[in-house]
Amino acid sequence: MGAPAVVVGRRATDRNRNFWVVTVSAGGRPHALPVWGVWDDDDGRFAFSCAPRARKARNLAANPRTVIMVDDTVECLSVEGRVAPVHGDERRALWIERYLAKYQPISPGISADFLRQHLMVEFQPERAFAIIEREEEFSTRATRWVFGT
Question: What is the domain range of residue 105?
């Protein structure tokens, strides 16, 4: 996948616990809330879950365009793309396994049963923007990557 996968890949996403997800309703109203999520280097995709009736789920059903950002204001990363619900028991089980591997050590009460009750979506990145805000490494402009579609 080249440079975009390196910037967005597992290394970048594993060190972040929370990710901001920005969705837009059918009427154009923006909505931003943090989620937990996992990246898969082989698929080049990110997955997160939410309650099936949450505003986020309704927005995603109406408009799959989404922005995901790491919860870091020093090494900023913003990724634009589209989401789609995860279908198929095998595919859901794979994402749940990845999710539990990352989050069970810090939240032992989370379970596969809990995750199966929620909407699981895959995020397909289209472009990423990054900037470092540390004084000694400060960038004068953002770096942009475009993913192959």
Answer: 3-135
